[in-house]
From TrEMBL:
GO terms for biological process: DNA recombination; double-strand break repair. InterPro entries: ARFGAP/RecO (IPR037278), DNA_rep/recomb_RecO_N (IPR022572), NA-bd_OB-fold (IPR012340), RecO (IPR003717). The keyword DNA damage applies. Belongs to the RecO family. This is DNA repair protein RecO. GO terms for cellular component: bacterial nucleoid. Gene3D superfamilies: Nucleic acid-binding proteins (2.40.50.140). It comes from Spiroplasma taiwanense CT-1. Pfam families: RecO_N. Residues 1-76 form the DNA replication/recombination mediator RecO N-terminal domain. The lineage of its organism: Bacteria, Bacillati, Mycoplasmatota, Mollicutes, Entomoplasmatales. Keywords: DNA damage, DNA recombination, DNA repair. Involved in DNA repair and RecF pathway recombination.
């Protein structure tokens, strides 16, 4: 089989031997993909710039036909680099978590181009420090929504009706609850928080970033999403440790009851 061209963002590169690397990318055409890159550690390599983490590049690869064999790089052309992100500590942490998720996620929809386009858009925002937290948060949220285990945010999870008045997000059931289906002791959540979740269920990331949402609602959503990745999917999100120590990303004690 001849070489094929793909457009992709490098999410990791690991030394294989003195001169070669194993490169993992998220591509427009195939989603997550790894390939063997011979000779890229040599100072004379023409491909060495294209395989750096957070590089958007056009690769020409010999794609493997079977899952037990790895593809091989022929050429790589750097189109854009997002290295400026590393100069802002918090933004670098956001992107590191995004990459950790992309490295581990397997059960994802076939909407690879849609996810690739979102990834590029979010990286552009974060590099320019435009709605960095919201861009990061909505991206990792939409990765869940495009997986086989999405949060149920389009109708009541109990009565299955989409036209009922939604008043609560139920953490155990991972979905929205209408007023008629509330159980004894369950509280009505803040209207702004419910609207945020409903918007995620029906709007795309570009529309969400045009909206203004309550900052505390976003922090609570972040906690829900991170908890879902760690507890439900078993993902390791190493850099999340640094965000947990930030006061701005923790819910004040006197506000916790509003979201229980």
């Amino acid at each position: 089989m001849g070489a094929i061209k793909i457009n992709a963002i490098v999410i990791s590169n690991v030394d294989y031997d003195d001169y070669a690397k194993i490169i993992t990318v998220f591509s427009k055409e195939y989603g997550k993909l790894s390939f063997f890159a011979p000779g890229v550690n040599k100072s004379t390599s023409k491909n060495k710039y294209s395989i750096q983490t957070l590089s958007l590049s056009e690769f020409e690869i010999f794609k493997s036909k079977s899952e037990d064999k790895i593809s091989k790089l022929k050429t790589g052309i750097l189109k854009k680099e997002y290295f400026q992100i590393s100069k802002n500590y918090r933004n670098y942490i956001y992107v590191s978590i995004m990459i950790k998720i992309l490295e581990q996620i397997e059960q994802i929809s076939n909407k690879k181009y849609k996810i690739f386009k979102m990834f590029c858009y979010v990286l552009e925002n974060i590099e320019k420090n435009i709605f960095s937290f919201q861009s990061y948060l909505f991206f990792i949220t939409y990765l869940i929504q495009e997986s086989i285990q999405p949060l149920r945010l389009t109708k009541c999870v109990r009565c299955k009706k989409s036209n009922s008045r939604i008043v609560r997000y139920e953490h155990v059931e991972k979905g929205l609850i209408c007023k008629k289906c509330l159980w004894p002791g369950e509280k009505i959540h803040l209207e702004s928080f419910v609207k945020l979740l409903q918007d995620i269920g029906k709007k795309n990331i570009y529309s969400l970033l045009d909206q203004k949402y309550n900052s505390l609602d976003l922090v609570v959503l972040h906690n829900i999403i991170i908890d879902y990745y760690e507890r439900e999917l078993g993902f390791y999100l190493g850099p999340i440790f640094f965000l947990r120590n930030e006061v701005t990303l923790n819910v004040p004690i006197n506000k916790i009851d509003l979201y229980k």
